Each structure stands twice: as C-alpha cells, then as structure tokens.
C-alpha cells in the first residue's frame, strides 16, 4: 500500500557468528535478544520491554549487520526501512508511513523494526523554523508510536545513524531510544577476527598470516575488510589461481590504497 509500502520484511539467517570484533556490543544487545525470544517471561516479571536501540557509528562498522543478527539470534522477523523513505513531497505522508510501519510491525511482534539512515528522519527541529512541517510531523508520529510502547507491544526498534548530532534530542529520552550503542573502527584483534569471518566460504591458502593482514589494515572498517577479501578472490580468479594467497591479499590491498589515493587526486 501507499503508507509504509517500502518497508521490507527480511528473513535473516544472520547470527552473532557473522559479526566479529564487537564482543562488548554483543553483550549489550543480548538482553534484547533474550526479550525477543520470550517477551512473556519478561513482561510477567514486570520487566519493561526494551523500546529503542540507537546504533551509532561510521559507515561500514556493522550497524545493519548487528540489527540483523539480533533478529536472527532471536528468530524473529526483521523489518527494514530507510530514513529517506520518510522524506516526502506531500505533507503528512511521512507521518502516515510511520504509522503504517508500526502497525505492520505490531501485527508481526515480536520483531525488530530497523530504521537505517535514521538521521534523515530524526532531524533536529530547529527553532528557526527551517525544518519543514512534514519533517516535524514525521518525528512527532514516531515519538507517539514509541511512547505507545508502554503497553509492551513486543516491537523493538533499532535505528542506525552515523551523524548522532543531527538527531532530535526528543528521540533519546527514556522510553524512546534510551539505549545507545556505539560501533567503532575495529582494533587489531577485531580486524583479525573480522578477517576470519570473511575468509569463510573462500578458498584461502592455509599459510596466510591474517594477523599480518590485520596489522596492515589499520583504519579499515568491517565493510572495508569484507571488500578486501572479495577483491582478493576476484584477483585470484583473474590471475587464474585456485587459492587466495597472502601475496594476492597484499596486492588487493595495494590496489585499494591506490584507489583511495586517486580520490585525493594523487597521480599513481
Ligand atoms: P552503513 O552506515 O553504511 O549502512 P553499517 O554500519 O550498517 O554501514 P553494514 O552494512 O552492517 O554497516 O556493513 C556492511 C558489511 O560489512 C556487512 O554486511 C559485513 O559483511 C561487513 N561488516 C561490517 N562490520 C562487520 C563486523 N564487525 N564483522 C563482520 N563483518 C562486518
């Protein structure tokens, strides 16, 4: 339908096994997983359902992956919508979309309702009146829906942003997005673990020293490391090799560095 039509229901087979280098973060969301697995048990004990979890971190650090993994671990449906879906030409459509989206989520509870590019929705309402009426209406509808969670609907909202400063303060009050989880660039150990995840299902030489690769990739996100492993596989194919070897990985890494330099206009 028109309202909330772009919300996707995804059956996620993603688990905590697919996300690495973020052990503390997994611990933080475990409570949400446990709630979703058995909401009744929580509610019978008078425990408040977790309402909103805000995932903050640079692009490619695994925010979407984490939200999917929470749904996968709990075995519940995962509904996904991008913040940009609420930016509408016509006043009121954004708010109607929000309403429709929560309606669908409630029908399928327990579930995860994931909002990507959340800064697009929760823009700081400025006193200067610069925001459109529509953006204010959309946020207000979102707040209304989340405040309605007092009756424990079994819908856990997870939202991702890489610009937390752009969010409306009203969104992070208790009962709304009262849990904020930060995803950061992985450290050496984290990068080594993420590389382990992304070598799965690939033909890799047993002799590869992945710690060495991890040391050479400071500043890389999980998405960058995934790209590196994929680029290495592609190189192997191109060069007619049957295995991903360490030199191939370093060659792929060199290519990536060259491309990045290219973005700064440096001649190669
Ligand atoms: P964006 O802000 O650009 O949407 P994001 O933080 O949501 O980024 P994801 O889309 O979750 O990042 O990450 C992209 C891909 O990078 C994932 O599907 C996964 O393959 C890989 N990836 C990112 N972080 C990790 C991680 N911690 N462990 C394993 N893989 C990761």
TrEMBL record:
Keywords on record: ATP-binding, Hydrolase, Membrane, Metal-binding, Metalloprotease, Nucleotide-binding, Protease, Transmembrane, Transmembrane helix, Zinc
Keyword Chloroplast among UniProt keywords: no
Entry's Gene Ontology molecular function annotations: ATP binding; ATP hydrolysis activity; ATP-dependent peptidase activity; heme binding; iron ion binding; metalloendopeptidase activity; monooxygenase activity; oxidoreductase activity, acting on paired donors, with incorporation or reduction of molecular oxygen
Subcellular location: Membrane
GO cellular component: chloroplast; membrane
Domain AAA+ ATPase, residue spans: 49-187
Any Gene Ontology biological process: PSII associated light-harvesting complex II catabolic process
This protein's record includes keyword Transcription regulation: no
Family listed: In the C-terminal section; belongs to the peptidase M41 family. In the N-terminal section; belongs to the AAA ATPase family.
Name of protein: AAA+ ATPase domain-containing protein
Gene source species: Symbiochloris irregularis
Residue numbers of the full-length protein present here: 519 to 786 of 1157
